[in-house]
Amino acid sequence: MSKNYEIIKTIRPKDENLHLDLLLSIKTTNEKFKDFPHLITYDFFLNGIDKLKDFELFEDDVLLCGYMRSGTTMMQEMIWLILNNFDFDRAKNVIRSERFPNFEGYDNRQKVSGITNYRKLEEFSRPRTFKTHCPIQFLPTQLYSVKPKIIYISRDVKDVVISMFYYLKDMFNETQMNFKEFLEKFMNDEILFTPYRQHLSGFKNLEYENILYLTYELVNKNIDEAIEKVGKFLEKKVFEENKEKLKKYLKFESMKNNTACNNEDCIKFSINLLEMLMKRRLKDISEKEKLVVIKVN
What we know:
By secondary structure, the protein is α/β, with parallel strands linked by helices. The chain has a single domain, classed as Rossmann fold (3-Layer(aba) Sandwich), CATH 3.40.50.300. It has 15 helices and seven strands. The strands form two sheets. A four-stranded parallel sheet has the order 5-4-6-7, sandwiched between helices. The N and C termini lie far apart (about 35 Å). About 10% of the residues have low confidence.
């Protein structure tokens, strides 16, 4: 039994026939967050989530936080390159999980691709960069004493729901629900990393001076402003030449063709599925589905 969380209930049992993983509702045992809601997570994330709470931080660490499908992938590359003096060669040749690992998913990748286990995170060279989809109550206890930098990115909930539906369907074989059923479960906080609104409010209401808030919409509509904000926050100069190179690097086609930052390092699946995931865009979603999502607001 973990000292950092307790399992409240099973949301969905494991089903080998349907290739569905065990989905659980857990709650932090930290008294400081006793009034915070539960978290829905897969059982294979529990080890990483548990270790995250006791993870040792340094003041020059950078934590990228955000709900799933909110733009964290692009932000990982932007943050890492700005922080590492625009080392594009390394960014193209070292897989992202070895430069900017995901806290809760890192242990699981050992099963999938043979990457070394979670303990290696402690040995990463500084300044270290980490990503997490976990809500504030599950972040390292040292956060409030060490005060590393946090960048939190959010996205319009309607777009999050649509993107989540197809992502979970394609990546985790969540094929048993239609969109309306998925939406209902999302609103009832029975989908991975829900509840969504409390995820946002937990960070928005955080009394923490070393945090930068960004939105997916800003990053996509005004990439120059987003780069400038991140550069200033990280206390790094961003010269015009590097900014233009970074903008080109972050374009969809560029990232799709870069094996160091696409999904090939995380999971083994067919080239056809990879292409389908990469090409899945909001414009492909029917207007009918988009109208249904408006109910989330």
